[in-house]
């Protein structure tokens, strides 16, 4: 695959040579898979799996160290009334909150993910983006969620986007030779077409993304079953071609247990069980966790729960 | 002579201001007092009940936050809309309860008057149930009634319309949101009431009407952690006991079933049953070491 990234022209020929997406078929397939009925023990399993896949997120201008610590406490112990509840995969914060979060989750298996590269717009010079990334890694981030330069992508400067992802990937290296895992956010709501989402997915994976992620959660259209299915298909094809496994993270707009279970069905039916772990699939979400906890309480007690029995975040 | 076929009405639930069918897709046959088929009514499931609670919780904030005067106007509007569809309700009540036209009309009129009566209470109940309290300290102490939240109601089984109105109106007049399970045998007047509420400024979700078997649906409502009170008016003795046990789990308020003459003056008992008293202590007089000239 090295030759396709040799020049801007070669990369463009490759990305534009990818088969076009059939939008009606794609949305139809995503909708059909969403009708699967998941009940009783399968539901209990799926709820626990979904909780363990959450990147519990707070990305607000008003974030305080206190709020980040509260979020970490919730990630470590989502339901204080039931200690059997799995922990979330990670907490996801802005770079300046990484140190606070790392301190709060130290000694546990909960990771700290940090957005970087001038999130969410990505409108900054490359040195600034790299400094942003290095700062977060130095402060203890296990994972970096970068945004691509949508302007360059839409203008057709694919090699620029490619080089930028590669540079950020380099910036994820730590001095001891290990590296933070890199999630690449495409902001699918700004890419206009499904064809563009497919191209962006391949571009990201070619550049070395460990995860490809739908969106920032800051625009009108975020993760949908259809765009996530499309990215899962790209991941499947990339794995078949190169043997490299890449994770997927839908983010934004997933608020209910029902929605989350639909995404898990998509994963299982598209890329298979190998991806059904928080190593390879994540949900970027905040309010989803409360709904999962309420459903979990319903399954374990037989009574419907309510918002009075979960934390207000 | 006309060969016109009459258009039969599909009775549907009223949840969140919309008219869904039962999520389960089930219906059951509703007959008049002589056993003749009248219509099919939705046979609600526990999931319908859960959806209704979600809708009620969503509506509660705005409804309880509306001014009492505004709530009164909205309830009065319900009476206005009912008046316009009086004939339909008279026919439905006559069929459901096996009453003569005149007796059914008296029931419907009483039900409309009851809406007006409760509409008047919305901005007066605070003066009756609240007030300032004399306390032994430098405090201005005020109590005021506040709505308790989402209330689930088993509607009376025999009085299909007057009884129904008599249990719904006091709940929402106080600022609560309600999920009501209509009379199992005679749900049609209740389902038609949903159409009236939908066109009378009552925000969607404040009143949610389900039809079906109370014995099937209501245990999940009585145990529901997000329901704050239950009125068991139409539950039989055995069911009521089961529901009361389930409701005790999160200390819901419970109004137990008792024989009621629905045509008599209802008093404020049902209104007060779903109000909680909030008391505020406001300091007055000297506060600091040097005293305060407040």
Description of the molecule:
The complex is a heterodimer of chains A (313) and B (294). With 313 residues, chain A is an alpha/beta fold. Chain A has one domain (18-307): Aldolase class I (TIM Barrel). Helices cover 46% and strands 11% of the residues of chain A. Chain A contains twelve helices and eight strands. Chain A has helices at 8-16, 23-33, 40-52, 65-76, 98-105, 126-138, 150-154, 158-171, 194-206, 225-242, 257-270, 287-301; strands at 54-57, 90-93, 111-116, 143-147, 181-185, 211-213, 247-249, 283-285. In chain A, helix 3 runs antiparallel to helix 12 and helix 9 (194-206) runs parallel beside helix 10. The N and C termini of chain A lie far apart (45 Å). The mean pLDDT of chain A is 96. Chain B is of the alpha/beta class and 294 residues long. Chain B has one domain (38-283): Aldehyde Dehydrogenase, Chain A, domain 1 (3-Layer(aba) Sandwich). In chain B, the strands form three sheets. A five-stranded parallel β-sheet of chain B has the order 7-6-5-8-9, sandwiched between helices. In chain B, strands 3-4-10 form a three-stranded antiparallel β-sheet. A two-stranded antiparallel ribbon of chain B has the order 1-2. Chain B is globular and about 95 Å long. Chain B starts with 26 loop residues before the first strand and ends in an 11-residue tail after the last strand. The interface between A and B is small, with 9 and 10 residues.
């Amino acid at each position: 695959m090295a030759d396709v990234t040799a020049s801007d022209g070669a990369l463009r020929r490759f990305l534009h040579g990818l088969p076009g997406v059939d939008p009606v078929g794609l949305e139809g397939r995503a909708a059909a898979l969403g009708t699967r009925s998941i009940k009783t023990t399968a539901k209990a399993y799926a709820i626990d799996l979904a909780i363990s896949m959450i990147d519990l997120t707070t990305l607000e201008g008003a974030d305080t160290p206190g709020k980040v610590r509260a979020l970490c406490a919730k990630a470590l112990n989502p339901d204080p009334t039931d200690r059997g509840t799995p922990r979330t995969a990670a907490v996801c914060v802005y770079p300046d909150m990484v140190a606070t979060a790392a301190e709060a989750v130290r000694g546990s298996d909960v990771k700290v993910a940090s957005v970087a590269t001038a999130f969410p717009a990505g409108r900054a010079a490359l040195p600034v983006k790299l400094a942003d990334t290095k700062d977060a890694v130095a402060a203890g981030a296990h994972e970096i969620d970068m945004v691509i330069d949508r302007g360059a992508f839409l203008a057709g400067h694919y090699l620029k986007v490619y080089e930028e992802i590669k540079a950020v990937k380099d910036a994820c290296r730590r001095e001891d030779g290990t590296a933070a895992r890199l999630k690449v956010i495409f902001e699918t709501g700004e890419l206009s077409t499904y064809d563009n989402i497919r191209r962006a997915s391949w571009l990201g994976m070619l550049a070395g993304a460990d995860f490809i992620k739908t969106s920032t959660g800051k625009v009108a259209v975020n993760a949908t079953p259809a765009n996530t299915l499309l990215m899962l298909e790209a991941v499947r094809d990339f794995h078949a071609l190169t043997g490299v496994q890449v994770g997927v993270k839908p983010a934004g707009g997933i608020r209910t247990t029902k929605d989350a279970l639909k995404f898990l069905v998509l994963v299982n039916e598209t890329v298979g069980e190998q991806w059904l772990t928080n190593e390879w699939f994540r949900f970027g979400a905040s309010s989803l966790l409360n709904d999962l906890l309420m459903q979990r309480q319903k399954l374990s007690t037989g009574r419907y729960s309510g918002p009075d029995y979960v934390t207000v975040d | 002579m006309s060969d016109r076929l009459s258009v039969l009405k599909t009775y549907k639930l009223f949840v969140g201001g919309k008219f869904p069918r039962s999520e389960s897709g089930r219906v059951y046959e509703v007959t008049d007092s002589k056993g003749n088929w009248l219509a099919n009514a939705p046979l609600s499931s526990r999931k319908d009940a859960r959806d209704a609670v979600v809708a009620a919780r969503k509506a509660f904030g705005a409804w309880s936050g509306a001014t009492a005067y505004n709530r009164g106007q909205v309830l009065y509007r319900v009476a206005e809309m009912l008046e316009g569809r009086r004939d339909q309700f008279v026919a439905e009540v006559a069929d459901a309860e096996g009453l003569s036209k005149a007796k059914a009309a008296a029931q419907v009129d009483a039900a409309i008057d009851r809406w007006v009566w409760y509409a008047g209470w919305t901005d007066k109940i605070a003066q009756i149930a609240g007030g300032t309290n004399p306390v032994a300290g430098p405090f201005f102490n005020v109590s005021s009634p506040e709505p308790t939240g989402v209330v689930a109601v088993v509607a009376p089984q025999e009085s299909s319309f007057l009884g129904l109105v008599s249990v719904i109106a006091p709940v929402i007049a106080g600022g609560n949101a309600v999920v009501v399970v209509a009379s199992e045998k005679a749900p049609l007047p209740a389902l038609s009431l949903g159409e009236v509420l939908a066109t009378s400024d009552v925000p969607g979700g404040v009143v949610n009407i389900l039809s079906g078997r109370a014995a099937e649906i209501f245990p999940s409502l009585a145990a529901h952690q997000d329901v704050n009170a239950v009125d068991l008016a139409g539950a039989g003795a055995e069911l009521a006991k089961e529901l009361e046990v389930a409701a005790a789990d999160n200390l819901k308020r419970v109004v137990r079933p008792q024989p009621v003459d629905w045509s008599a003056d209802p008093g404020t008992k049902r209104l007060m049953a779903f109000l909680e008293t909030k008391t505020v202590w406001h300091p007055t007089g000297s506060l600091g070491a040097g005293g305060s000239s407040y």
